[in-house]
Amino acid sequence: MIMGCELYIFDEELRRDAWALLEQTRRTPVDLLDITPSFFSQMVDCGLLQGEFPLPSFVMIGGEAATPTLWNLMQQHPEVEIHNYYGPSEYTVDTLGAPVAAADQPVGGARGGQHRGVAAG
């Protein structure tokens, strides 16, 4: 927003209906989607990556694991920069991240100024 962009916060109904959200992006194109893999998959099933709708330039998926089928499909669309994010809790989803194009389902590396590690209990 500091760069003059607009932030759209979709209502609960729109956030649960992949087709309705796609129709909304047709009326008001978005540059970035921050979405779960399962909902992204629903949007893909409705035609998101088939050229019928304006494509976002950047997609952040996170909050759950992407299926291998979805992962492979995302890698076939380099025109959209898709990143996978992971975090240990609902409120720290974007702790680790990696581009989907980089490898086979990486959890990702620590994001700016962060370190990652494993603590044995």
UniProtKB/TrEMBL annotation:
Recorded superkingdom: Bacteria
**Where does the AMP-dependent synthetase/ligase domain start and stop, copy by copy?**
2-97
Q: Which InterPro entries match?
A: AMP-dep_synth/lig_dom (IPR000873)
Q: What is this protein called?
A: Peptide synthase
